[in-house]
Amino acid sequence: MAYIARITICVLLFFASCSQCFMRVAINVQKLNVAQHIGPKYVGVTIDSSVIREHWGTIDFNSPKFLTLAKGLAPSFVRVGGTDCDFVIFNETTTAMNERKDKAGHTNFTMTAADWDELNIFVSFVGWDLIFDLNVFLRKDGHWDPTNAIELIKYTIEKGYKPVAYELGNELDVFHDFVVTAKEVAPDFAHLKQILSSYPELAPFFILGTDAGTVASVSVKFMTEFFEAGGGESIDVATFHHYYMDSRKATVDKFHNVTVLESLRPMLINVINLCKRFIPTKQVWLGETSSSYGGGAYEISDRYVSSFLWLDKLGLSSVLGIQGVLRQSFYGGNYGLINSNLDPNPDYWLTVLFKRLVASPVFTVPQPPNPDLRIYAHCTNTNSSMGYTAGSVTLYLLNLGNTTVPVDVPDMVNKTHHIYMFSPGDDTGLTSKSIKLNGVVLALANDNELPPLKPVIGQGNIQVEAYNMGYIVFPGAMRSECV
Ligand SMILES: *[C@@H]1O[C@H](CO)[C@@H](O)[C@H](O)[C@H]1NC(C)=O
Ligand SMILES: *[C@@H]1O[C@H](CO)[C@@H](O)[C@H](O)[C@H]1NC(C)=O
Ligand SMILES: *[C@@H]1O[C@H](CO)[C@@H](O)[C@H](O)[C@H]1NC(C)=O
Ligand SMILES: *[C@@H]1O[C@H](CO)[C@@H](O)[C@H](O)[C@H]1NC(C)=O
Ligand SMILES: *[C@@H]1O[C@H](CO)[C@@H](O)[C@H](O)[C@H]1NC(C)=O
Ligand SMILES: *[C@@H]1O[C@H](CO)[C@@H](O)[C@H](O)[C@H]1NC(C)=O
């Protein structure tokens, strides 16, 4: 009996000590395979057209703080679009318009010359590229009526502004108050392309569309019809929108739940395959995307916990072949990278470091057996202020759970690595309004520059503590793909 008891204890001890080792994660940085390539402006931002209706809300285009925060994300695309793009009417000569509600409660509104001036001067000053979404509800005899767009184009050329890209309409597949079908909008896009091409001053430009409302089946159906009607020839980039959930049903738990994170994967694969079939040489972007739709979840989408959904979306999208991710939003709603006081939320800092540290190509990393840990790997950005040189590799890791996860890096154990690890900014934990980098709360020291974002130098295996996420750079990885 004693003998059997001893064996039982030994077996129990084996499993107790080894429950850790089954969960251990190992990653060989020098053996990762290249999965995809992305461009230097893979991450962009949006400003919703509804902010034009408010004549830019609390944005102060002269605020040094606002300009500093925007410059911190350059180079970047900014897409100005959304539901309200289909109610905006450019008017060079007036400052106001009598708003008249239609039956569904929608009202048109004016974008004044001053509104357009402010936007264009701003993007050029901070080094961003403007993508502008034109109103597709201005229609005549079942076709898009470009009269107002042409007024805007002429004014734009006269002022020397240089938007880099255009869109036409927003989420027509899920917006049911007005119906414009995929069959109708396909020739509208051809018309848009023809008009834009007729102004040499606008070149080079590109066209994104159709800004389908989801990556789910309703949008796949709409985009299939759009492609079948020849729409694919007029666009350079296919755009789909994505939100994980409805803001009204959002919870803190859902924001770091692996099932929620993984819900994106099959849908992205589906839309990428659709586009491969119809427009194999063209890019697919998440043209407007965030944690939860309907303005973002109150006291969740602007908190530390939202960074899990954001960083994971950037990783998953890049490894599956998405070429651009436009974050709803830079400013506006609970999901803004900056808040209505123009102060940065946690996701702002995560995005700044993504841009500085993460580049192309993207490597395949098998998802670890421990579902709490998410890992992505890319070549390091060698064209940023961080000064990394060719050959370096950046991993990004997210620990969704409440226990520390060790990560072994067998082929890098003898070389140093640079740690940029984020954690909640205060004792409220996941709902913290602020975020720490390597243990120090991030904040602007002054309005004219971002604080230094310095790494901690480490060596050997990596510990990802509970609810931490961040970047690890291996300057000594010597990957020939990383030039
Ligand atoms: C612009 O506003 C003026 C003055 O209110 C009006 O007469 C004109 O029709 C408007 N133009 C457009 C394109 O709405
Ligand atoms: C907006 O203006 C267009 C053009 O005048 C008109 O066709 C449309 O019905 C208006 N929409 C609303 C919501 O008033
Ligand atoms: C995550 O969400 C799924 C589905 O909503 C649920 O079944 C699961 O229990 C959640 N996981 C955790 C760790 O809360
Ligand atoms: C490096 O970055 C600068 C500033 O964004 C940009 O102008 C330049 O084209 C980039 N160079 C390369 C080789 O990507
Ligand atoms: C850690 O999370 C697990 C499930 O995700 C939960 O059952 C457990 O109570 C948590 N532990 C602590 C200390 O919060
Ligand atoms: C790391 O250094 C140890 C001791 O010198 C050596 O035994 C080991 O092979 C090295 N590992 C690698 C991956 O270079």
Automatic annotation (TrEMBL):
Q: Which InterPro entries match?
A: GH, Glyco_hydro_79
A cellular component term (GO) from this record? membrane
- Domain of life of the source: Eukaryota
For this UniProt record, the keywords arranged alphabetically read as follows: Signal
SUPFAM superfamilies recorded: (Trans)glycosidases
Q: Which region is the signal sequence? A: 1-21
- Output one GO MF annotation: hydrolase activity, acting on glycosyl bonds
PANTHER family (UniProt xref): HEPARANASE (PTHR46145:SF4)
**What family does the Swiss-Prot or TrEMBL record give for this protein?**
Belongs to the glycosyl hydrolase 79 family.
- The name of this protein is Beta-glucuronidase
Q: Which organism is it from?
A: Patella caerulea
